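Students often ask why we bother encoding 3D structure as a string. The short answer is that it lets us treat folding as translation between two languages. Here is a chain of 301 residues written in the first language.
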Amino acid sequence: MPGTKIAAITFEGVDAVEIVTSEVRVVAITAFGPRIAFLGRPGGANLLYWAPGKHRRGEWDLRGGHRVWFTRPGADEAEETYGEDNGVCAVEIFPDGATITGALDPIQKVRRGFTLKVLSAGRIQLDNFLRNESDMLWSGGLWGLTCTLPAAQTSYRVPLGDGSSWDYATIVTFRIWGGGHGGVGFADPQFETTQDAMVLRPSGRENKRMLKADAGVVAMHDPERGVTFAIQTQYEPGGNYPLGTNLALYVGPENFMVEMETMGPVLTLKPGQVSVHTEMIVLSAAGATAPENADLKGLFA
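And here it is in the second language, the structure alphabet:
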């Protein structure tokens, strides 16, 4: 892509790769992870929550940004999901992007990573991947989690339905999960189901929703920073997804972050095989009114 600049840099004291176009700046950490630590306009604010060391579960550090997790068959979270990802990454930089590969998981014998590829000034393809480097079978699905930093007027939208004559959506609600998270209950006014979408207006109460959404689109609308940040991933009808869902939204306590999550179906990998979960990322200018379903889907046409 003409005008794209890609370079190895230091970000907040650690090694990273920076990709800059006229409309998007992305910084991916390579000292550990890998993680995307910054996503926003060049010279603008970071749309991602990024706070290494603040939220931990054993050796695992949330840090924030974007990370690659995996689901287990029949479970979207398991103990091995929280395996530490503190090893140094391998980096390959090419003219329109970069591939960053994490250290070998000593138990699972897999490597996780992602490839960032600039498609246009405001559009990036993010290929999350996992490679089986053991001599055994590995099964699971890939899970892309992007921790965003909401402002006072930020809202989130997931278009629902496929427009057919037999149209439905699956919405999984939670009372409590993960050893005490949540507790708000099933009825939570932060989440509104409209005629054709799930809309989240974060109000500081920890909760989440998982959704089966055929369009595979989840979007953050931020009028204060003048941007709509949308992610799209392909939904495979008949695929074995966690609780039958391919997208999720999580609100952290006191709105410290909102996670936009996309999930792929469970696959079985033979030794040496790779699973890829692709997310298309778009940043576009935002007005005062949040975009409707057609506008969001049009970003990926």
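Translate back mentally: Helices lie at 293-298. Keep this in mind for the problem set.
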